[in-house]
Specification:
- The protein is of the alpha/beta class.
- It folds into three domains: 259 residues, 2-Layer Sandwich (Aconitase, domain 3), CATH 3.30.499.10; 143 residues, Aconitase, domain 3 (2-Layer Sandwich); 177 residues, Alpha-Beta Barrel (Aconitase, domain 4).
- Helices cover 29% and strands 18% of the residues.
- It has a seven-stranded mixed barrel, surrounded by four helices. Strands 7-6-3-4-5-20 form a six-stranded mixed beta sheet. Strands 17-16-15-18-19 form a five-stranded parallel beta sheet, with helices on one face.
- Helix 3 links the parallel strand 4 and strand 5.
- Helix 2 crosses helix 3 and helix 10 packs parallel to helix 13.
- It starts with a helix and ends with a helix.
- The relative contact order is 0.12.
- The model has no long low-confidence stretch (mean pLDDT 97).
- Bound molecules: alpha-methylisocitric acid and iron/sulfur cluster.
- Alpha-methylisocitric acid binds next to helix 2.
């Protein structure tokens, strides 16, 4: 029986566990990436593990999220990360060099390699045939130290692409179609593998847009084959040597299949407030808009920007619209400056932002009250833009630029002939903003620079045998990590200070939560389905840990957040019967005992609602490694024990 592409790469990298669907496998990790918003914590954890030099083939620390320096905090974090990188063998991509996923694709990624990154959009690397997975900072720290990264052996979904995109339909519209069909929960426990004749009609940046936003499906990752188009891209990046051809065997067996005819794809938008709330542009109609933001790791490639410049050339942004553009990397921005496309953008009235995440993570450009914002980004969760009642629509760069001129949502197919923008024969290569690490001989003399806002990892303790405490918060379905631990310009600078950032925990749902949880000392959170979707930020587990949360009991979890809870030593329980969700109200006192034995033996656990007297059966299925992590009080304690 033939193998899927995913299986081929996993087989090459498995170091622990059995190659059996649904079981846990440990993977050797070739490359890691971090960004600054998760990076400070990841490097504090790396230092706490105590390994002198990274053991990966390539580890890169990017500065791209917290680039708004309105106080000392972010600048201090950047210096800290830079100093750890220099000392411990990590390449350091300086602020200004670009968004981690875009730069990694351009300069470091390689087909057939494994990559984990402390950012949920790490699957962007699947655009060149990598198994690239988003993970918590602690998992990345362990992988930098040479430890395996553990995933559940995934189901593999074949997306069979046929045909060719019509004029002005974009890769973004393809992934929006996949989201429409599979929803934000549809990818959990799965790898999405793209195959079929349509693959060769898509350039690398187009493929990367699709794998990037596979994160919104909840998928473990997404991947494209590595073919002659991948080679052309890598050649143009001066990196043909890392190319190898990779594809699934013709008789590979998949768990699920989906067919997409590219020629039937229409320009579409994800409507507020979920990336799977998809409508076609014609269905929504010519809605008046207030803001357009172009950029982010989903849509900020050279080709995306050239299309935008072509649409803006000689025009003026509509007087009622604010247009901002953030090219994805220094390479992209530099090439636009050199060929004059940047002039066309500026001349049309675009506000050019630095090559960083910016508005995507609420770092500036929050829309006006109730404002309608079109964004080429990947997430439109409530409040993420920084404006609580902002209405964010996710669209392609083509739709965004056409609408910025018209002042209303506009189908780009009304623009006439589409320009042909091929992959450049040669990208402009200058890695002067990537600092190599110190040599082994020099590393001891590098000093780690720690600012006053950088506080240690919260205290942990081995699992207690009995827990009795109130439910401090009850929330519904599809709670995102942006609900649990919001980001944005005011809160992101606190990422290195868990006590401080925890004061904002669940601010989107209930501002009184942090104080209440702290006063209770220990408590339990109850939630609905797909709890913790979205970002990889382990702060969504560390802030609850700091606030005394012992158990999170929900209908179902998103993958990365569940791992982050386990890594933080918080018990991830699910209801054996979903209807039991109704048996708990906020404030009820919940109790369970004999936990250690139950966890060790993988038995269901009964929680008694002491307020109502009702019994609630809970499931806590853990691999044997996850059991040991939970019993030890979290991954940090577990790893330290292992190293002893
Ligand atoms: C995001 O897009 O939500 C982020 C900000 O990139 C996060 C990481 C973070 O919270 O720092 C992600 O996607 O993992
Ligand atoms: Fe940055 Fe936005 Fe991409 Fe997250 S999704 S890495 S915030 S650009």
């Amino acid at each position: 029986m033939g193998l899927t592409l995913t299986e081929k790469i996993l087989k090459d990298h498995i170091v622990d566990g059995e190659f059996v669907k649904g079981s846990e496998i440990g993977l050797r990790i070739d490359q890691t990436l971090t960004q600054d918003a998760t990076g400070t914590m990841a490097y504090l954890e790396f230092l706490a593990i105590g390994i002198p030099r990274v053991k990966t083939e390539r580890s890169v620390a990017y500065i791209d999220h917290n680039t708004l320096q309105s106080g000392f905090e972010n600048a201090d974090d950047h210096r800290f990360i830079g100093s750890v990188a220099k000392k411990h063998g990590i390449y350091f991509s300086r602020p200004g060099n670009g968004i981690c996923h875009q730069v990694h694709l351009e300069r470091f990624g390689a087909p057939g390699k494994t990559l984990i990154g402390s950012d949920s959009h790490t699957p962007t690397g699947g655009g060149i045939g990598m198994i690239a997975i988003g993970a918590g900072g602690l998992d990345v720290a362990v992988a930098m130290g040479g430890g395996a990264y553990y995933i559940t052996y995934p189901k593999i979904v074949k997306v069979n692409l046929t045909g060719k995109l019509g004029p002005w339909s974009a890769a973004k519209d393809v992934i929006l179609e996949v989201l429409k069909r599979l929803t934000v929960k549809g990818g959990v426990g799965k790898v999405i593998e793209y195959c079929g004749e349509g693959v060769k009609t898509l350039s690398v940046p187009e493929r990367a847009t699709i794998t990037n936003m596979g994160a919104e499906l909840g998928a473990t990752t997404s991947i494209f084959p590595s073919d002659e188009i991948t080679l052309e891209f890598l050649k143009a990046q001066g990196r043909a040597d890392v190319w190898k051809e990779l594809s699934a065997d013709s008789d590979a067996v998949y768990d699920e299949e989906l067919n997409i005819d590219l020629s039937a794809i229409e320009p579409a938008a994800a409507c507020p407030h979920s990336p799977d709330n998809i409508k076609s542009i014609s269905e929504i109609g010519s809605m008046k808009i207030d803001q357009v933001c172009i950029g982010s790791c989903t849509n900020s490639s050279y080709q995306d920007m050239m299309k935008v410049a072509h649409i803006l050339k000689g025009k003026t942004v509509h007087p009622d619209v604010s247009l901002s553009i953030a090219p994805g990397s220094k390479q992209v921005l530099g090439m636009l400056a050199e060929n004059g496309a940047l002039y066309d953008m500026i001349d049309a009235g675009a506000r050019i932002l630095e090559s960083a995440c910016g508005p995507c993570i609420g770092m500036g450009q929050s829309p006006n009250s109730g404002g309608i914002s079109l964004r080429t980004f990947n997430r439109n969760f409530e409040g993420r833009s920084g404006t609580k009642d902002g209405q964010v629509y996710l669209v392609s760069p083509e739709t965004a630029a056409a609408s910025a001129i018209a002042g209303v949502l506009t189908d780009p197919r009304t623009l006439g002939d589409e320009p042909c923008i091929p992959t450049p024969e040669q990208f402009k290569i200058n890695d002067n903003m990537v600092e190599p690490p110190a040599s082994e001989a020099e590393m001891d003399s590098v000093e780690i620079l720690r600012g006053p806002n950088i506080k240690p990892y919260p205290d942990t303790a081995p699992l207690s045998d009995a827990i009795e405490c109130p439910c401090s918060l009850k929330v519904g379905d599809n709670i995102t990590t942006d609900h649990i631990m919001p980001a944005g310009a005011k809160i992101l600078p606190l990422r290195s200070n868990i006590p401080k950032i925890s004061e904002h925990c669940f601010a989107v749902c209930d501002e009184t939560f942090p104080e209440r949880a702290k006063a209770l000392g220990s408590s339990i959170i109850v939630g609905g389905a797909n709890y913790g979707q979205g970002s990889s930020r382990e702060h969504a587990a560390l802030a609850p840990l700091y606030l005394g949360v012992k158990i999170v009991l929900v209908k179902s979890f998103a993958r990365i957040h569940r791992s982050n809870l386990i890594n933080a030593g918080i018990l991830p329980f699910t209801f054996a019967k979903e209807a039991d969700y109704d048996k708990i109200s906020q404030g009820d006192v919940l109790s369970c005992d004999n936990l250690i034995e139950a966890i060790k033996q993988g038995k269901n656990i009964t929680i008694t609602n002491k307020t109502t007297g009702e019994a609630i059966e809970c499931v806590c299925e853990l691999s044997s490694r996850a059991k040991d992590i939970i019993l030890a009080g979290g991954l940090l304690d577990y790893t330290r024990e292992q190293l002893k």
